[in-house]
Amino acid sequence: MKHFSGLSSALAVSATVLLLAGCATAANSSAEPPAAGGSGDRYTQDDVTTATGIHDVTSVFSVPKSLPEDLNLAYINPSLGTPFFKSMSDGYKAAAEFYGVDIHEADLGNFNFADAVNKYDTISVFQPEVVGILTPSGAGLVDRTRADGVKLLASGIPIEGADGFIGTPERETGMLAGSVLAEGVAPLVDDEWADQEVVFVGLGQAAIPTTMERVESGLEGFEAGGVEPDSAEFPDLGKSATVADGVRVMADFLTAHPEQAIAVVAMNDQAGVGALQAVQAAGRQDDVRIVTIGADEVGRAAFKSDDGIILGEVDLNPWGAGWRWVEAALALALDEEFVIPAPERVITRDNVDELYPED
Amino acid sequence: MTTDQAPALESLLSVRGISKAFGHIQALTDVSLDIAPGEVLALLGDNGAGKSTLIKILSGLYATDSGEIRMRGVPQRFQSPADAKAAGIATVYQDLALVDTRDVAANLFLGREYTRGPFIDVKRNVAESRRVLEQLKLGHLPASGVPVGVMSGGQRQAVAVARTVVSGAELIIMDEPTAALGVSESAKVMALAHELRDSGCAVIIISHNLQQVWDFADRFAVLHLGRLAGVRRRSESTVEEIVQLIVYGAAGA
Amino acid sequence: MTATIVAQPGTPPASPPPKPKADPVDRILDVGIYIALAALVLVFSVASPYFLTVGNLLNIGQAVAQTGILAAGVTIALIAGQLDISFGSVIAITAVLIAVLTSAGVPVAVAVLAAVVAGLLVGVLNGVLIVHLNISSIISTLAVGTAVTGGAYLVASGQVVPLPDPTVFSWVNARILGLPVPMLIAIAVYVAGWILLSKTKLGAHIYAVGGNSSAALRAGIPVKRIYFTVLLISSGLAVLAGVIVLGRTGAGDPSYGAADMFTVLGAVLLSGIGLGGGTGSVQRTLIGVLIIGVLANGLVLLGVQSYYQQLLNGAVLVLAVVMEAIRRKRRSR
To answer: Where does the signal sequence lie (chain A) (predicted)?
Structure first.
């Protein structure tokens, strides 16, 4: 796999990944992303592109222009206090408005997954066709939704027995992050880092397997990118993955590895920004490079102001993820198919202002 | 030095020659005292005179070094407050030991509630409380429904005293009952002491304020530097004499 | 609530002495939570057509059951003067132990028994620290709770452990005569709590110990045994809540219970119980539980941004704490 430099090559790879990702609901393979251009009784990719503006969403389902009356959706957000999920919330609300359906929202606060079924009960009075949630423990919800005849569309983390899943393909996301990291680190390994051991660090949450898959794939992408680290470690961020968690874990890691050069893939921007702060506090700017996954406001802000330690941020486009959840939910409601797209782009120093001019 | 040696047969409590030292400090030396049923005795003395040591011995909190305590002529060896209580001596301390958040009935029967199986027999507790309150002319106090914490200092004192009656005490010791009270409240507490006396109990009131107890006590026992300076009947003594006993340990000094 | 009427020295004797009365401010503090609950119900009923429906009210009942069961235990312990904040950890260890053990092929009954034993051990440990080592309850239960939560993460290897057979606990999601089972359990807990506190000798002693432990001791009440009893009741109810969460979610997650701290303590504080001990009742706690439950439900129905939800929940807590401060100030006057 080649090194990447900026938007165009990232897009090229994600297009490949898109093909690999395949169908979400495997019943048949007739699903197609909306055709570009054209008009008719369904919205096209062009319509979506126009509607989503800078968020530049790749549609996962060509939504009919006339939908059944009273079609409504519900999304149980894991933490609206987290920028990523707030962005996602804005995205699904925008999509619902665009497609002319209602969406009801509940919030688990700070990832209080134990409350998910109660929040579902609350929101069930609206009798939504499809309910979405991100939770590592969704078994109880499967029973509840099934009893009500409501379709459960898992979001981000697959739920066994759910009616569908849409999320980031963790492996492809991690590999993309790893390859961006390898591209930035490769010149250092031949030069400044030549005399140092190189350690790969994946910052994930041991309790949430998808985050571990993401950062472990980061190592895979890193090696595929042509850098062979001397060792790889995956310190646990713990229950949450906040900036504070990133600082804590990375500060300890730096203390334990005073001589080594360190290449980091962080599961989200918060952890990556925390790691950055720990590096700055320890004065280890020369020894560490970081790639984060997410590219939310927190990530982009840090990225724009740091001194070259964060090499790039894989753009999960949370706003777009929210938009696409609505499209997938509509597909599910209409018993049609949708596709899961791979991450679309990497935010780099060259394109960040162009992609996020509002920052 | 005069000591009023009342015949032991009439005595409810009879203390003979008790001494108590804490290390090198001799807190009490050879104190002898009697109190009869239906009598109010004021135990007076300056700070450090030995009042509270004597009271703690009578309450079973301290053991004596020497001497003898008899209740109705029966020698007692108090190992704990429970022993003193069992012998019929109840002490009302200044802190009153009330549960402020509970009502009068709950406080009067604290730890000895009437029950039916695991359940509290609330009706009976309240009825018995009313009876005891009436007996002590405290019928105006609400037996139930009002936490004692909202009552006045004198009323709380009255509740604490009523509890000693519920416990079946014959000798009731009141430790500085009027220390935190105003004049009229103090008078009410003293009136309560008379009710207890009239019902046949003996009452010891500890005080360092002679003015407050002068009109209410039948006799005055004065401690001075750990010794009994004198015991006087009110009818046979004067305020001046008692004050001299308190201050100098002897009259006419 | 208690008013504080202390006679001033020199007050002329009133004849007959006036029966002590609560003054208006205390009265308002006293009935305030009932008014608040009624107002919330009224506002949400007007604002959302979905709120005052049988289905939604049952949803509220179901949703507050877990908080309510925990809050009842915390209330009973707090009346005895002990603030037990280890309940979250008991939920976590209960859910995780049952999930892990049944996944390993242990019979469900044995797994549940193990969880009960573990939960009660937490109560015993709390008791040993508080009663025998004389450490304040908030510190003791915080320490024990933190350790037990760590234990839950260890047992679960930091993972969410799905139940191998969720149908075993599907009774938690069932309804009897149309009423959700957790709600029925919570009702039973509150009736039992009410009887315990207001009708039994043990209840009277719990109030006495919390109101004045040294007076209770002098009155011959086994104070230490009462402390152990209330701590065991509290952790026992947390085990019950843990089983309910396990049945509701179908998985054991060591992070369970962490978020209950604020809702449970919020509900308990709202009741006006105060942290001093000797006062309070499960009935008033139930009102606090319902206020928080109705608020959570109604705000979702109205589609209120969750930032505002958190803000409101925080405001409710602040209000509860301020009310408690006012009460304490008036009491000590």
So the answer is: 1-26
